[in-house]
Each structure stands twice: as C-alpha cells, then as structure tokens.
Amino acid sequence: MAIVTNKLTKYYNTSVGCNDVSIEIGRGEIFGFLGPNGAGKSTVVKILNGLVIPTSGSAEIFGMPAGSLEVKKSVGYLPENFKYYDWLTGKQLLAFHASLHGMDKHLLKKRIKQLLKLVKLEAFEEKKIGTYSKGMQQRLGIASALLPDPDVLFFDEPTSALDPIGRKDMRDIMVDLKRQGKTVFLNSHLLSEMEMVCDSVAVIHKGSIIKKGKMPDILNSFITVEIRTEFTGDKIPHLIKERFGEVKLSKGKIRVKVDCDDDINDIARIIINNGGKLYGIICEKMNLEDLFISILEGG
C-alpha cells in the first residue's frame, strides 16, 4: 500500500478535525477525497504531509510514518491556497524550490525545462509571477509539486483556477502519473473531474468517513429503478418496501432505490410472482455529484 491511515484522529481544543479515519490507497492509484467545507479533508492531508500532528491513530506512506524525512523525499504537495513570490520568474521559482529539495544541479535545468513544457508555461518562464493569471499560477504550482519526481502526489483543488482546457491537461497529467506507477491523492470540489480519473474515493463528513470504495462500486451502489407495472391491492408495493425501503408510487409506476443490478431481478420476481404485470424497467445510476449529495443527506 502507498498510504494507510488507522483510526486517525485530530482534535483542535474542543473541535474535531478528523475522527477515526481509516483508509488504504494502493500504489499507482488515483484516490479522490470528498467532503463539504470543514469536513476534515485538509486536516487529513496536512497530517499525511507532516504539517499537523495527530491526537491519536497512525498514518503511513510506504510503510513509514507520515511526515518523516524519508517520506518527505518521495512526496509532492500542491496546497489549495498557495502564494508565490511575485518578483520571481516562473523559472526562478522552480530553481528555488529545487534548491530546497537539494536536487542535483546538473539535472536541474533539464527537469525545470521539462516541467514548464508539461504545464504549458515554457513561453512564460522568464515572466514574473506577478504577471501570471490565476490559471498560470495554478499550472506553476503543479510543476512545483512535480519537481522532485515524487512517488506520491497530494493535489488540493488542482483545477480550481483552470479553464476547461487546463482541467483536461491536469487530468492527462494525473493519468500519466498513474501510468508511471505513482499515487495521486486528490481533493476537489469538481466532482465530475474526479469521476473521470479516480480509481477509488472516500467521503468524509464532520470528521468521519461515511462512505469509501472503488469508484465503479460506489457509483453502482445507488441505483434508482422506475418500473412500469400494473397490479391490484397493496401487496406488491408492501413487499417491495419491506425488502428495499422507501417506495414511491404513481399511476402505473413504482420508483425505488436499490444497491445493485441483482436487486432489479428481485423486484421483477416480486411483481410477477404476486400477479402483477411488468411492462418496463428504467435504471437511473447516479453520477458522483448526485451520489455525494445523497450520501450527505442520509439517502
């Protein structure tokens, strides 16, 4: 495993930063961390980067304590709110950060040139950062996080200031990092972006994990089924409600939430075996944004 937390807990005086957070993220995986503002996402990320000490529990990266010197050598981090020196050029900033990493001077120029080209800033490398747009500064931040060629990347809202082309470029970068066997930990409010690239996700709310799993399993865990049917009495809706919970009835239609495709077969059997007529079934699978809202609302 690349990242493992076990009952990670952090209290700020009387408030909870995170509580009993246990997650496992495999090597070469893109992991999405979801939650509303103040849910505890940043606390967990800061602990994993050694910026905050947990109250209890543990966090490891490649089997070593998060925040240790050896771990820091293999981690890249793009925080959500960053501020660079306006008077430096993009090239100078990367050279400065490279010196902080203790990077080999002989490889430095080649690496900086490679990264500026990757984030499409090579034409602006001699321009001062104070003249950069927000999107350009975001691209520079991504280059800075990638500078030491880390094995684990933490991206906190990496596409927030980017236009659609920039977001597509960022997705391509993350997919390529995965192809190289690197692990990406992604915080983002753009859930459609997450849905396109993440292998697994976890939802955190009020400091605690309330849902986690592989992306396909998560998306398939909330399916709304609309059945066109005909029946008499209330036996069929009663049996469906008994088995699946809330049932919505309208003329000639039953709507119900199920957990998997097999449940749809069970509903069909209930209708047919109890004298009902089945005319059609429409399945509506949620996208990640709808699912996220549904989970937070307890649905």
Q: Mean of residue pLDDT? A: 89
Q: What is the terminal-to-terminal distance?
A: 31 Å
Query: Helicity, in percent?
Result: 25-40%
**Spatial order of strands in the largest sheet:** 6-7-8-3-9-10
Radius of gyration: 24 Å
List the helices and strands in order. Answer: EEEHEEHEHHHEHEHEEHEHEEHEH
Written account of the structure:
The protein is an alpha/beta fold. The protein is 37% helix and 29% strand. The chain has eleven helices and 14 strands. The strands form three sheets. A six-stranded mixed beta sheet has the order 6-7-8-3-9-10, sandwiched between helices.
In short:
The chain has 299 residues and is an alpha/beta fold. The chain contains eleven helices and 14 strands.
Topology:
Layout: E1 3-12, E2 15-25, E3 30-34, H1 41-48, E4 56-61, E5 64-65, H2 69-72, E6 75-78, H3 90-101, H4 105-118, H5 134-146, E7 152-156, H6 164-179, E8 183-187, H7 191-197, E9 200-205, E10 208-214, H8 215-220, E11 223-230, H9 235-244, E12 247-250, E13 253-258, H10 261-273, E14 277-285, H11 288-296
Parallel strand pairs: 3-8, 3-9, 6-7, 7-8
Antiparallel strand pairs: 1-2, 1-4, 4-5, 9-10, 11-13, 11-14, 12-13
Question: What keyword list fits this structure?
Answer:
single chain, alpha/beta
